[in-house]
Amino acid sequence: MDMQKIALSISVGNFVLTWGLAFYMHLVNKGKVTEDRITRLEQDLDAKLDGQSERLARLEQDARHAPSHDDLKRIHSRIDDVNERIGTLQGEFSGANRTLNLIHEYLLNKKD
Fold first, then answer.
1. pLDDT band at 50, cuts 50/70/90?
2. Has this prediction a pTM greater than 0.70?
3. Which residues contact 67 (CB under 8 A, 6 or more apart)?
4. What does the alpha-carbon distance between residue 34 and residue 15 come to, in Å, rounded to a whole number?
5. What's the rounded Cα separation, in Å, for the pair 32 and 26?
6. Is residue 93 a contact partner of residue 86, using CB atoms and an 8 Å limit?
7. How confident is the model over 91-106, as a mean pLDDT?
8. Rounded CA gap, 102 and 98, in Å?
9. 3-state SS, residue 65
10. Can you give the chain as a three-state secondary structure string?
């Protein structure tokens, strides 16, 4: 073989090998960056989920102290009782107001 052909073959081989290695390194680095990004996302998600589990535990604790359905039923019953008594008082005060107005009218119209 001719020396020029050997030098050309070595140059072409070197070119192909260099660009092949560069492409391989690009793919490897891209994979590392993607893997690092996924790892960071997993860590962030774990931290957020830890915070959520703490919040959920607090809500469950607070829910234990919330009034039950029976408690709300008793409260509603007592409110109905108070409402009924207020209605009775309102009627009594209306009657008393009417009586006072009649007395006032009588005293104003009374001829001495």
1. confident
2. no
3. 75
4. 28
5. 10
6. no
7. 93
8. 6
9. coil
10. CCHHHHHHHHHHHHHHHHHHHHHHHHHHHHHHHHHHHHHHHHHHHHHHHHHHHHHHHHHHHHHHCCCCHHHHHHHHHHHHHHHHHHHHHHHHHHHHHHHHHHHHHHHHHCCC
